[in-house]
Design the sequence.
């Protein structure tokens, strides 16, 4: 009898010892946050994105199968932000033709610490087709193409500019959809329920801790990889929402499943960094039969941590000369007028400087 008690005690001690080695959810979040803060404190990151999308109904993007991609670069120093992206294919809203990779849709967002710049340019082919359809004379077409060569908007507050640094920066620094919304780490810390499973699971070559969390309507399952800096090796988010009266189709149930898989890591400056991942996003409108499936493949092609941004000129405004300029919310500049960008300056129709991006000063006219 005594021998059986000893065996039971030994077994219990083994179980308790194994349990003691398993970190808590908050301990895992601390380790994950530590790595994220090292990576995204200050950086230059270039990456490629390949996209495939299916829409059962027209919802922002035309229905049917669509595909495309983008080449992007982002720079961030904890306060200032720059992003440039070249999009091709037909996965973007309001795009009805397939945009070739050689003639992409071009967009830039810059927050230099005081002023916010957004620049956009449609592909030459798309503009030429529009000009052919809308105008009969060569003069009209040429004027249209010149006016649509590129539009630059300058404002003194990022929230006044459509897009802001939101989607660009949010997607890369661990925020939920938008840079102005909480980071995933903040949401998980405030989760109503959060726990770590007893058994680790193998993802790729690594044994990972598996964390389950419930935060409002979201149900998360997250695989944390201790062999690669406690980064996320796999991720799932499932939620259901009932649309409010103010939204389209009030009362309808929306289901969304988001997953991140096949993550690959690379070590840079002693820090493990995610460099490739596949993201799946499936949205269903229950009762109306709407279905949207989005698949994306991300690949980071170049990463510099803690660069010398001043030497690189990371946040110096640099846009094509003769671009049209709209100015919003800057004292001393008439918002109702159109201006032109020339060598870092905004000039009026008479060629007078109304804004200098180098000195960040507006000239009263």
Sequence:
């Amino acid at each position: 009898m005594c021998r059986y008690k000893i065996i039971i005690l030994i077994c219990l001690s083994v179980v308790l010892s194994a349990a003691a080695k398993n970190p808590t959810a908050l301990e895992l979040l601390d380790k994950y946050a530590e790595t994220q803060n090292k990576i995204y404190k200050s950086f230059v990151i270039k990456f490629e994105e390949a996209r495939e999308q299916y829409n059962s109904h027209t919802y922002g993007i035309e229905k049917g199968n669509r595909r495309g991609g983008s080449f992007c670069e982002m720079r961030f120093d904890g306060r200032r932000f720059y992003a440039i992206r070249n999009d091709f294919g037909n996965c973007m809203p309001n795009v009805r033709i397939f945009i070739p990779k050689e003639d992409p849709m071009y967009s830039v967002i810059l927050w230099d610490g005081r002023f916010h710049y957004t620049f956009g340019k449609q592909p030459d082919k798309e503009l030429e087709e529009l000009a052919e359809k809308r105008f009969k004379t060569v003069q009209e077409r040429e004027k249209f193409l010149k006016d649509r060569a590129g539009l630059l908007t300058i404002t003194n507050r990022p929230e006044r500019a459509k897009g802001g640094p939101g989607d660009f920066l949010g997607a890369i620094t661990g925020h939920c959809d938008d840079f102005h919304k909480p980071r995933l780490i903040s949401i998980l810390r405030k989760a109503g329920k959060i726990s770590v499973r007893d058994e680790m699971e193998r993802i790729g070559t690594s044994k990972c801790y598996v964390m389950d969390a419930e935060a409002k309507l979201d149900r998360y399952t997250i695989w944390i990889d201790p062999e690669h800096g406690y980064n996320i090796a796999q991720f799932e988010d499932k939620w259901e929402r009932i649309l409010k009266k103010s939204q389209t189709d009030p009362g309808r149930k929306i289901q969304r499943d988001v997953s991140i898989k096949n993550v690959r890591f690379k070590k840079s400056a002693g820090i493990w960094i995610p460099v490739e991942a596949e993201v799946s996003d499936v949205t269903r409108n229950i009762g109306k039969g709407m279905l949207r499936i989005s698949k994306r493949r991300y690949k980071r092609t170049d990463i510099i941590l803690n660069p010398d941004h001043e030497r690189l000129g990371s946040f110096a405004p640099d846009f094509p000369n003769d671009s049209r300029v709209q100015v919003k919310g800057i004292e001393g500049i008439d918002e109702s007028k159109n201006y032109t960008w020339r060598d870092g300056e905004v000039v009026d129709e008479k060629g007078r400087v109304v804004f200098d991006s180098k000195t960040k000063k507006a000239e009263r006219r």
Confidence is low (pLDDT under 50) at residues 1-19, 160-170, 175-180.
